[in-house]
Amino acid sequence: KKVYYYGFKVHAIVSDDGYLLNYAVTKASVHDAKETVELMIDAHPANHYLLGDEGYLGKNLATNLKRMGYVLWMPYRKTMQGARRHNDHQLMAIRRSIESDFSLLSYY
């Protein structure tokens, strides 16, 4: 089944203390993982750990970022094996604060 996405999507790299390091606005159909490597090339975050959501799951992205010197962490889907152990509550809390920044952007 073909699904079409209309509108725009904001892709952003945000520091662990909430500062916007880099961003891009794309068509809604652009996959999150595709834009991440491009954003990281210019962002140069001091922290070499990246938090993402389930949209970033995939070996290709993790491999590309590892070559650049970054470690990607994203929560497992609840149905994935080992999800309960992997989905650290402190990291999930950081993700929630980042998501709240995104919700503020979409509000305005």
Let me know the largest β-sheet: 2 strands, antiparallel
Strand order of the largest sheet: 1-2
Which spans of ≥5 residues are poorly predicted at pLDDT below 50? none
Our measurement of the CA-to-CA distance between the termini, rounded to an integer number of angstroms, reads 33 Å
Tell how many strands the DSSP assignment holds. 4
How many independent structural domains?
1
What is the overall pLDDT average? 76
- Structural category: alpha+beta
What is the global morphology?
globular
Strand content: 15-25%
CA radius of gyration: 14 Å
Question: Counting H and I runs of at least 4 residues, what is the number of helices?
Answer: 4
Which series of helices and strands comes N to C?
EEHEHEHH
What share of residues is helical?
40-55%
Structure, explained:
By secondary structure, the chain is an alpha+beta fold. It has one domain (8-107). 41% of the residues lie in helices and 19% in strands. It has helices at 32-43, 59-67, 83-86, 89-107; strands at residues 8-14, 20-27, 49-51, 71-73. The chain has a two-stranded antiparallel sheet with strand order 1-2. The chain is globular, with a radius of gyration of 14 Å.
Topology overview:
Elements: E1 8-14, E2 20-27, H1 32-43, E3 49-51, H2 59-67, E4 71-73, H3 83-86, H4 89-107
In short:
The chain is of the alpha+beta class and 108 residues long. The protein is built from four helices and four strands, in the order ββαβαβαα.
